[in-house]
Amino acid sequence: MRQHKHLAALTVSSDISKKARQHAIVMANKQSLIYSTLTDGVDDDWVWLAQIVGYGYTVAEIFDYLLTSPHHLPTILSEKPSNIGIGVAYDNAGRIWMCIVFKETYK
């Protein structure tokens, strides 16, 4: 979708990938859709951060919601981020809990 809007591809970043994975596990364990403290566990090279969380029984279900959400789509299509981290965890009922962290770094 970003490519169709002529936006730069995002680079996977290890620090925010780890943060996203850990937070997805927290949400799955708590059975609660919550945001993390955004700066926790993120390297000091950022100038802009954003986070999206979601859950569902399929990745397609989660992304269908995010891509039609007036609150989430602007973050996904923002020109600001250069990096992305995605974390996924499953709960006992088979639901997928997802956390996506976006980061713009110093140029």
UniProtKB/TrEMBL annotation:
SUPFAM superfamilies: PR-1-like. It holds the Pfam family CAP. Residues 1-100 form the SCP domain. This is SCP domain-containing protein. InterPro entries: CAP_dom, CAP_sf. Signal peptide: none annotated. Gene3D superfamilies: CAP. Coiled coil: none annotated. CDD domains: CAP_bacterial (cd05379). The lineage of its organism: Eukaryota, Sar, Stramenopiles, Ochrophyta, Bacillariophyta.
